[in-house]
């Protein structure tokens, strides 16, 4: 499968890894939108949140926990934002499920 994030997980495309375990992998976004901008992805290829099924429930929870763990390690005690862009209207551009962890600045609401 020609998936950039799968290649990053496999180490075929370089990235700055910040977390990895048996289920997930996290790395710095190449085009950061905040002082801390990390992408948290499942090792398993899942196209988007919309493509996740009932069997993926524990995995989804694990990724959310991993994001919180990374935020703690990054010292984001003032808060942060988790974003999961999903599908065309959601602004998803990379077709491998990913959580954005954004922090280190004040976020605005609603997002654009
Ligand atoms: P989306 O728009 O799908 O929610 O987010 C995709 C994110 O992946 C974007 O923030 C973009 O900067 C990031 N990205 C795209 N290609 C690469 C890459 O090759 N390496 C890294 N580290 N990030 C990437
Ligand atoms: Zn993939």
From TrEMBL:
GO molecular function: catalytic activity
Transmembrane segments: none
CDD domains per UniProt: PKCI_related (cd01276)
Domain PLAT stretches: 78-112
HIT domain location: 4-112
UniProt-listed Pfam families: HIT
InterPro entries per UniProt: Histidine_triad_CS, Histidine_triad_HIT, HIT-like, HIT-like_sf, PLAT/LH2_dom
Motif (Histidine triad motif): 96-100
Active site per UniProt: 98 (tele-amp-histidine intermediate)
PANTHER family listed in its UniProt record: HISTIDINE TRIAD HIT PROTEIN
This protein's name: Uncharacterized HIT-like protein aq_141
Lineage, top ranks: Bacteria, Pseudomonadati, Acidobacteriota, Terriglobia, Terriglobales
């Amino acid at each position: 499968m020609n998936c950039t994030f799968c290649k990053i997980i496999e180490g075929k495309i370089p990235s700055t890894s910040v977390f990895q375990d048996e289920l997930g992998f996290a790395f710095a976004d190449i085009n950061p939108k905040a002082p801390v901008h990390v992408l948290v992805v499942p090792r398993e290829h899942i196209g988007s949140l919309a493509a996740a099924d009932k069997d993926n429930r524990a995995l989804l929870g694990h990724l959310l926990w991993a994001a919180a763990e990374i935020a703690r390690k990054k010292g984001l005690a003032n808060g942060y934002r988790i974003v999961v862009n999903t599908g065309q209207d959601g602004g998803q551009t990379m077709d491998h499920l990913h959580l954005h962890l954004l922090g280190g600045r004040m976020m605005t609401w609603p997002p654009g």
